[in-house]
Amino acid sequence: MVDLPVTKLSWTAFDNLNLMEKAACMCDGGREYHVLYAQQFGRERLDHLGRLATAIRRLAKTKEGMHELQKMLPHKRAMLYFAQPSSRTFLSFAAACQILGMPVAEVRDTSVSSEFKGESKEDTVRTFSSYFDFIVMRTQIDGLAERMAWVLSNSERPVPIINAGSGKDQHPTQALLDVYTLQRSFEERDGIDGKVIMFVGDLARGRTVRSLAWLLTNYDGVRQIFVAPPELQIGEDIQALLRERGVEFRLTEDFDASLREADAVYMTRIQDEWDSVAGESRRINTDRFHFQPRHLDILKTNAVIMHPFPRRQEIDIAVDTDPRAVYWRQMRNGMWIRAALIADLFRCDAMIQSDSVRRCG
Question: Which of 6, 129, 293, 360 has a CA between 20 and 30 Å from the CA of residue 24?
């Protein structure tokens, strides 16, 4: 068994911990072993992973640099276990593994696995751990990723799990790529500190917002504005976490007024896959929460527009050509930060950074 704090706890005892306590249980020597929660990442770790992602990006620009990257982890194997539909997250993890030379296998349809025969999730994941060195897991079931991490930590082959989206809980690697995008966007404006971040759309059910709102508490003086209809406003649990961290935030329905303040606008779609009754989301009028070309005249000239995708009508495609629209760059950043996370997980970070300095200056 790996000697993590979580191995000293029963599942019931672990499940009763708060998020910060759970996050601490999943770390090994100050680094993440399983990556499950945004609460696992402090400012120092975010800065380190951002620098590492940039080093990987710089190396990958040349044939020689890419060749060196692909020699990092050819001896490790990855399982992408995506029981919930995904394209961007799945492909960016697959690409990240390929950058590091890591062979990849996948299960994306549980109807063709032994789960169809009635196998438990625990047995499925332990089977994967027999063949692979880490598991990237995406599921529609709340809390399943952390349950599986506890199971593997207490098994004879405790390989790491990365949460690629677990129910409505969290999506920590999306939040990492969002922070990396903000780091890059504001690198000539004194970084993320002191910025106003505006979240728009389905904030009640958007796990990307839940994770990013927390990560932003690691930065000084960041104000958060949550713009949504009342039915889709950010949950009280996130509000309580922000109050506990002393973060200034407000809830509002006034899109245009908030837009004038924003340094970054984080747009989201309606998460109607979580409707408890079919079609209930369609009864909520969200038209006034869409980013239209006219809003470009309101937005600061040095602000950025972000979106985790997939997109529907919440950003007009005419906005795509504006230089402040960074969501396509944001998507590509997902590949780099996930490669950085995997490299860090397997302790290749120092080698990559020194190679980047040697080759790129």
Answer: 129
Q: 173 and 162 in contact (C-beta within 8 Å)?
A: yes
| Neighbour count for residue 318 (Cβ, 10 Å) | 11
pLDDT digits (tens, 9 = 90+) for 176-221: 999 999 999 999 999 999 999 999 999 998 889 999 999 999 999 9
Q: Are domains 5-170+334-352 and 172-332 of this chain identical in fold?
A: yes
CATH number of 172-332: 3.40.50.1370
pTM higher than 0.85, yes or no?
A: yes
For residues 17 and 40, is the Cβ–Cβ distance under 8 A? no
Q: Which is nearest to 310 in space by CA: 154, 120, 97, 90?
A: 90
**330 vs 162: CA distance, rounded Å:** 20
Whole-angstrom Cα distance, residue 302 to residue 74?
42
What CATH number labels 5-170+334-352?
3.40.50.1370
Nearest to 225 by CA among 284, 185, 265: 265
Residues known to be catalytic: 88-89, 117, 138, 171
Query: Do 100 and 94 contact (CB within 8 A), yes or no?
Result: no
Dihedral sign, Cα of residue 219, residue 221, residue 227, residue 232: positive
The mean pLDDT of the chain is: 93
Amino acid at the residue 157: R
